Give the backbone structure.
Amino acid sequence: MKILKLPKHRLDFFASVVQQFGEVHAPVEQDGKFVFRRLTRWSEARLDYPRTALPPKKYFLPPRETMFRYRENEGYVPSMDELNRRIILFGVHACDVYALNILDRVFSGEYDDPYYQTRRRNIAIIGIDCMPDDHCFCRSMRADFADHGFDLFLYGIGDYYQAMVGTALGDDMVLATGPLFEPMTQADVDEYKLRSSGKRRAFRMEVEIRDLPEIFEMEYQNETWKELGEKCLSCGSCSMVCPTCYCYDVADHVVLGARDGTRSRSWDSCLFSTHALVAGGENFRKDRSARIKFRYYHKQRGFVAQYGRPSCVGCGRCISACPVNIDISEVINQLRGVQDAVAK
Amino acid sequence: MTPPKKKILMVDDDPDYVEAVSSFLEANGYVVLKAHDGRDGLKLAKMEHPDLILMDVMMKERTEGFFTVQQMRRTAELEATPIFVLSSLYSQAPDFRIPPEAGWLAHDEFFSKPVNLMELLEKIRNCLAERAHEEARP
């Protein structure tokens, strides 16, 4: 992997130059929170953000999208216009890059999703390193470092960003900026190591995921699930903000009296009471406790069996978004029988 | 009948400079619209559809003009509007150069400030005449 460095005070020029590869979107502050949005000027970008309200998932699997329309004599016409927008997502954290790598596995392979995959091809990722806050446990989930899934990844160290080039497109971006990037020196490598160990020590939250699927297997009847069901409002906020939740609902919108319409999909959540409702009125997960238990089992156990790792990346969004303060790290630690796990 | 005057939008945060250049262009038969930052420039360009745009780079922030040019390029009704960049960028950031292959400015003229107004006028005339000629082609 090619690694170079960029003086921090030239980042605005770099951002100007990468505009030739697509619209630049970055985290900006909005009503006290941070959201990924298209920039109108570089100074709007807040690269020191803790986490965005919604993860970058919204670019690849939008909250609502029309997949195709159908008309008499025309058949199915896919909606591809929006898919071909070329976007540069500037300032994506490692956990969110990791989350996209997880979504890649869901939306490719056995069931290829052309909508997701086209967007993944057309949206470039420039990652940026971050320091953990009180809700981050990405290190526990092995997602504090991304080794692929980005075009460029920037580590802010001293007066420089160290830039890891992840793809040919990332290399093109570096080359297009002419002399802005400089080669790394041994002193830079040493600084990187210092920063890396500093970040490791900065985590205040820890969750042990080793043998967690086995513990889940054994604790299916644990009282924790009932207690969680009594607390959980089934609002679905945790799923909406989760960078790896991908459930969606498909609906046809048929024009009344005509023979045409559109088919769209929108985010769904396994916490919604209708998620497991099937024809005939049977609901496989009627109770809130069954639904929240399902969510935990799918992410921490089912996903491990299917893809070899949990689908949680430890971004902490579900903890921030939950209106009744359900904290995933506390739930896991309670199941493991570990008390006072948050304060390390 | 006299043809309508060509409209030029000038985006620059220095009001004195805008005044000087626009007076010169108005004296030479153009209508000049003025904006003092990128956002207003973009808004005005979308409303008025100028025939040509003169764009500063370093305004409220150092790369504002670049972002504004890019937004114009990605706006359907403005994507073909010629944009001339007038900037002191190279004297203020001498080690930065817009790479020649950079598509987002490749087809525009770049004038280093202070700009030779006669040269600017000639380039504007040539550019607009060429476009009129292209539009008149069957």
User: Anything to note?
Assistant: The first strand of chain A starts at residue 2 and ends at 7. The two ends of chain A are 35 Å apart (CA to CA).
